[in-house]
Specification:
The structure holds two protein chains of two kinds.
Chain A (H helix, E strand, L loop, with lengths): L2 H30 L5 H20 L3 H18 L7 H22 L6 H17 L33 E9 L1 H5 L4 H9 L3 E7 L17 E8 L3 H7 L7 E7 L2 E2 L3 H12 L14 H4 L6 H10 L5 H10 L11 H27 L6 H25 E3 L1 H17 L3 E7 L4 E3 H22 L3 H6 L5 E11 L2 E8 L6 H10 L11 H6 L22 H10 L3 E7 L3 E9 L4 E9 L2 E6 L3 E5 L6 E4 L3 E6 L2 E7 H4 L13 E6 L5 E6 L1 E9 L13 E6 L5 E5 L1 H11 L3 H6 L3
Parallel strand pairs in A: 7-9, 14-23, 18-20
Antiparallel strand pairs in A: 1-3, 1-4, 2-3, 4-5, 6-8, 9-10, 10-12, 11-12, 13-14, 13-21, 15-19, 16-17, 17-18, 19-20, 22-23
Chain B lengths: L11 E9 L2 E6 L3 E6 L13 E7 L2 E7 H4 L12 E7 L2 E7 L1 E9 L12 H6 E7 L2 E6 L1 H4 L2 H6 L1
Parallel strand pairs in B: 2-10, 5-7
Antiparallel strand pairs in B: 1-2, 1-8, 3-6, 4-5, 6-7, 9-10
Classes of the chains: A alpha+beta, B mainly beta.
Chain lengths: 723, 155
Amino acid sequence: MTVDTMAAIRQTFFQECEEQLSEMEVGLLAMDEGNADSETVNAVFRAVHSIKGGAGAFKLTALVQFAHTFETALDFVRSGKLNPTAEVMKPMLRAADVLADLVEASRDGKEIDESSYAAIAADVKALTATEGAEEVEEAIDFQPTVIDFGLPDMAPEPIAAPVHEYRVSFTPRPELYANANEAVLVIRELSRLGQAETTCDASAVPDIDNIDPNGAYLSWTIKLSSEVAIEAVREVFEFVDGEADITIEADGQPEVSDDAIAALLAQALGSAPAAENDQPSNVTNVEEPTPADPVQSGAAASETASPPAQVAEAVKTVAVPAQTTIRVEFDRVDRLINLVGELVINQAMLSQRVIEANFAGSSSVVIGLEELEQLTREIQESVMAIRAQPVKPLFQRMSRIVREVADATSKQVRLKTDGEATEVDKTVVERLAEPLTHMIRNAVDHGIETPEERVAAGKSPEGNVRLSAAHRSGRIVIEISDDGAGINRPKVRASAIKKGLISPDAQLSDSDIDNLLFLPGFSTAATISSISGRGVGMDVVKRSILALGGRISISSRPGLGSTFSMSLPLTLAVLDGMAVSVAGQTLVVPLTAIVETLKPKKGEIHGIGADGRVMAIRNTFVPLIDVGTQLGFRDTPADPERSVAILVETDGGARNALLVDSIQDQRQVVIKSLEANYGTVSGIAAATILGDGRVALILDVDALVTRSFEGQLTAAARYGTEG
Amino acid sequence: MQDVGSPANSANREFVAFRVGSQEFCIDIMGVREIRGWTPATPLPHAPTYVRGVINLRGAVLPIVDLAMRFGLGLTEPTPRSVIIVVQVHQQVVGLLVDAVSDILTTSEASMQPTPDVASDLAKNFVKGVYAVEGRMISIVTLESVLPIAAKVAA
């Protein structure tokens, strides 16, 4: 095997690890929520087991060892010897973080000092050491939550613990060995459930001459006396499902096969459920096969209580076809997006020509055009959707941040997420990670109070942080809310006065005070902690969000908590803008920068210095920037009274008025790079293509304003720094 | 640019010949992506005078270099007969505004003559040699030299 193929396999392994880790995290969080049904526990166990297996193949010793420790503990939970209580889940979740770190380190070829996670490894080991392996009655300790599925007699009775006699016959097929499973491991696992008596049937073994080295000839019969339910026995064979002929007779009664249950269930439901969720145990999907809204489906998923094991198993065999995916290079997708953008422009041009040619009378042409328009729009949306990704992996990372910060600050915090299936452009997801991390840290560090403070305030000692995503009017809205103390407005105000950000007699509304948090250089933490408040604060978060074309707002209620709400465009490929005319050119001003548009009246424009001008807007003076002269489109400044002023706010919060000739309309434009074939142009962010096929430039408001200051070293510049 | 593998530089190469003002120039056909008619360009702020602006080339934003202006021969007055030669240099795609495309020349490297030693910026900066074709002199333009410099400085 060449080095390249080895590297490729290795890469695949780590890609799979990512998926396994993500599955593990989902499962562990569900267990932490108290939804420790056997399906979930098994999924977590399988994930860790697969990572261990793969790591072994690559001789990643540290990873294997830790995964083994973790797996052992999970196995205890799986077999019911360990109850997934909060005390148990805490080290488990920490172990999951360590496992993720180890995977990452192994992938990057780094070493992690064993001492850094030794404590957690010891905690996890302790879980398995203290629980006596003999306490078999714990096997039934987690009671399945009974949900009414509207299916009579499907809800299981609470299981009593009489000793069952099982007769298990186990005949592996060659596939079992081909998939690197081992019959002996299964039998060993089975023997752990109780008293087992195993007999091997070797009668099928052919002569040595006729033997197929890849064949499977042995079968076993195991007589098992155990207190566990039949499900637990069947679970042992989970890994070899479909790879062996298995029959389990309980107390002399032949087992109802999975298929039979499946058939019954399918009959009861009328048809096989098309569960599109990747969690097969998500039984709510059976009743709501296609939740239209991603938010709803997210909510449905989180509301799913642990279904009774029996039903879960049966649903699983009705089998959701695995979601198939292909990996495609981003360049290819982008090329497709470009072409579709062209198609949209072409279609607009065609429509315009048809109108010009006075085809209005022949309705078939018009109808045909409308259909074309509909189609192109659908194609555009579908192509954009290729780049879209759910925010789920991002949200999952946040639960880890919450754990770490909560640990470091000795607080009890639970993260609840909603709308994880909400999709947004990949670039947006990537660039959201940093501001989101920062805000989550803030929420735990500054928002949530200590357990003592919470109890004193009459709240539960455990704080809640909620992270939610939803699509709202063509944008994605992400909210982070906590049920902490809320913003301490007197303290924020005092701090802002002390730092000279506001004057002591400033009249500020509550929301004005809340927004002080976004000012550069503002930090509310009474003590600067290592977690948040290292000088970079919410102003950095705000800047990152604005850079993505988004907006952020705060609302806070004293004693009840704060909510940060971010609204972001679904893609960075299009932008909402206002098309304006300047000196015969069409320019696009990003809508996010615009505060309002005004028609300057006589006496509102004041000259200042040699050629500086300011505009009076409700008793404040803002610098007036003539876009035409600023960009060199004309030499003489425009007459303000025959122009339109657009009040814009820069990322820094400074306000300026841009003078343009007229406003055309508001539209969504496809962003095209100028850099690819030319270079950066000061004052211009990018270009776009208009419906008539011509290129229009998109203004970079910040750069335009800064450039204006450099140009006019007049008093006007000083006005610009207020606010 | 070298015809490696072909017999000793004698292999014929093809050039696109075009007119700028009263002079004739040519560029290697391998660098030419397409030839298209003139469409009005959107002016770019703070651009050098020879950059006429940008046009839409099937979804890509293409800067247009006025070759007459670039060569110091004065601004081109675009007419419906003006032509944009779309060229690719490395990863950069640029449109060259010329008065007309006159010819496709097939000639060999060997028949190239050195640029006559004249005190002209045009000859020194942009021309790497000349061809004599049927009594005409056609200057060979090096594509790298005509690209908008401002872009590189600004970037």
